[in-house]
């Protein structure tokens, strides 16, 4: 099939390269000329394992990129993979989606024949039908359900394993309101589903598909927060939370994934998506108490970590090493990283902060140029009065002699990754 993808970021580039891999002809439309040139040169504009190889193999053949929305006219379906950030009050900010829909609608005005527009971005229920579809109709002059249809196909990939997650999904969710839209979506996904060993395909309505994405992210975020709540109780009793959580994970109704207790969840999606669905729920008159509690527990974890530090040392004037600046291991992404509230609280407390991350230092430095950065964990620990472990980079588990070079070896571990031993004043958050 001929497919177009609007937006060539984490999601847009990954799905474009993977759709090309399963046999479709794909064109990426992005307003960023550098991204377009990079893709056309056969390079991936983002770093994801396996993506470079796919882009190198298919660019110039089944995969190309352009800044010209007119390219969508030669395709059967367009996926909108544009950012959906948060407004200050948590509501979803649809301005980029609306701009993309306007450009797409204008381009479709000159298309002969049917076109399917699929929302790939995470959007609150009814956005596709009540916000995107009317813009498409107005700009294209076409009629919904006749010349143009809309669909919704939520994405569940994780940063750091995007290609693998997309090509081997746990499920594929296809939201549509007409048989023609459902058929086109099936045609798009059939080759991927066959190659992925037949994962379940959930055919549903458009608003249901939109809600499934928030339910998925909300549930996972709440699962981590519940694990943190339980781990905090364990800590107060002096009970080993890891033993408790790994035992409950053996119950197949609970499952062991996403029970990792610690300093909490961050990243470009959980915080904004949980905030957006809470705001949307309130707009329709429902108070989502569980999701609000998930946020509250998450916000408390960094505060608790600092409380543990204060049990050993007053941060005022102390040199504190922050190990891990990325929002999770395996990425240089620092958006909503748990290191952010910690560094801010340490600066407020007049601490002398030195940060270290294997790959995310430059991104963090852009936000916090005022703190010191080290080139290795050893350098960050050298002469420090305390260390806070914020991201569970596997290499932190191997740190050992480096702790002996601290002025006082106080280690407050927010991810339970450091190996405790004699000679370290070890304190875990949970
Ligand atoms: N990043 C992730 O791991 C996941 C993201 N999502 C959702 O997917 C959506 C997209 O997210 P990302 O790919 O992370 O965004 P991103 O920020 O990485 O990429 C967005 C791309 O859109 C381009 N763009 C902006 N305005 C445009 C316009 N008017 N026309 C054409 N291109 C335009 C930008 O230049 C950029 O390349 C969001 O709704 C997000 O919540 C869903 C699952 C996973
Ligand atoms: O909508 C999205 O964009 C994506 O959001 C998350 O993916 P991602 O943010 O890339 O990363 P995760 O691996 O889910 O981690 C999110 C946060 O939770 C934290 N986490 C994760 C697991 C755990 O057990 N404990 C825990 O604290 C991580 O440290 C990280 O800060 C979801 O896992 C994806 O399914 C979804 O598509």
UniProtKB/TrEMBL annotation:
GO terms for molecular function: NAD binding; UDP-glucose 6-dehydrogenase activity. NAD(+) binds at residues 30, 84, 122, 159, 272, 335. It is an enzyme of class 1 (oxidoreductase). SMART domains: UDPG_MGDP_dh_C. Residues 321-420 form the UDP-glucose/GDP-mannose dehydrogenase C-terminal domain. The active site is at residue 269. One of its GO terms (biological process) is polysaccharide biosynthetic process. Substrate binds at residues 156-159, 213, 258-262, 266, 328. Its EC number is 1.1.1.22. InterPro entries: 6-PGluconate_DH-like_C_sf (IPR008927), NAD(P)-bd_dom_sf (IPR036291), UDP-Glc/GDP-Man (IPR017476), UDP-Glc/GDP-Man_DH_C (IPR014027), UDP-Glc/GDP-Man_DH_C_sf (IPR036220), UDP-Glc/GDP-Man_DH_dimer (IPR014026), UDP-Glc/GDP-Man_DH_N (IPR001732), UDPGDh_AglM (IPR054886). Keywords: NAD, Oxidoreductase. Pathway: Nucleotide-sugar biosynthesis; UDP-alpha-D-glucuronate biosynthesis; UDP-alpha-D-glucuronate from UDP-alpha-D-glucose: step 1/1. It catalyses: UDP-alpha-D-glucose + 2 NAD(+) + H2O = UDP-alpha-D-glucuronate + 2 NADH + 3 H(+). It comes from the Archaea. Belongs to the UDP-glucose/GDP-mannose dehydrogenase family. PANTHER family: UDP-GLUCOSE 6-DEHYDROGENASE TUAD. This is UDP-glucose 6-dehydrogenase. It comes from Halobellus limi.
């Amino acid at each position: 099939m001929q497919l177009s993808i609007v937006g060539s970021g984490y999601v847009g580039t990954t799905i474009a390269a993977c759709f090309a891999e399963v046999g479709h002809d794909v064109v990426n439309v992005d307003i960023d000329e550098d991204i377009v040139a990079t893709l056309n040169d056969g390079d991936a504009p983002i770093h994801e394992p396996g993506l470079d190889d796919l882009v190198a193999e298919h660019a110039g053949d089944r995969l190309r990129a352009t800044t010209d929305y007119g390219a969508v006219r030669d395709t059967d379906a367009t996926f909108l993979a544009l950012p959906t950030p948060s407004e200050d009050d948590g509501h979803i900010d649809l301005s980029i989606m609306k701009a993309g829909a306007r450009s797409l609608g204008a381009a479709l005005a000159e298309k002969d024949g049917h076109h399917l527009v699929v929302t790939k971005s995470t959007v609150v229920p009814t956005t596709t039908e009540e916000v995107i579809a009317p813009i498409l109709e107005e700009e294209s002059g076409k009629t919904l359900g006749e010349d143009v249809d809309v669909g919704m196909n939520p994405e569940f990939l994780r940063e750091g394993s995007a290609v693998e997650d997309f090509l081997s999904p746990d499920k594929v969710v296809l939201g549509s309101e007409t048989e023609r839209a459902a058929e086109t979506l099936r045609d798009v996904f059939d080759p991927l589903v066959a190659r992925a060993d037949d994962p379940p395909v959930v055919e549903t309505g458009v608003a249901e598909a939109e809600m499934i994405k928030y339910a998925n992210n909300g549930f996972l975020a709440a699962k981590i927060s519940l694990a943190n709540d339980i781990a905090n109780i364990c800590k107060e009793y002096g009970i080993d939370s890891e033993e408790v959580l790994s035992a409950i994970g053996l119950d197949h109704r609970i499952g062991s994934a996403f029970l990792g207790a610690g300093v909490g969840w961050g990243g470009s999606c959980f915080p904004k998506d949980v905030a957006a669905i809470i705001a949307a729920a309130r707009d329709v008159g429902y108070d989502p108490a569980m999701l609000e509690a998930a946020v509250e527990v998450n916000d408390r974890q960094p505060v608790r970590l600092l409380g543990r530090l204060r049990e050993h040392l007053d941060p005022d004037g102390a040199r504190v090493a922050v190990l891990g600046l990325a929002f999770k291991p395996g990425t240089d992404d620092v958006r909503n990283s748990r290191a952010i509230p910690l560094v801010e609280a340490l600066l407020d407390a007049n601490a002398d902060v030195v940060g270290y991350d294997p790959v995310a230092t430059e991104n963090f430095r852009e936000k916090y140029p005022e703190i010191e950065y080290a080139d290795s964990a050893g350098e960050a620990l050298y002469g420090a009065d305390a260390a806070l472990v914020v991201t569970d980079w596997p290499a932190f588990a191997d740190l050992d002699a480096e702790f002996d070079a601290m002025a006082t070896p106080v280690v407050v571990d927010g991810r339970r990754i450091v190996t405790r031993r004699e000679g370290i004043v070890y304190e875990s958050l949970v």
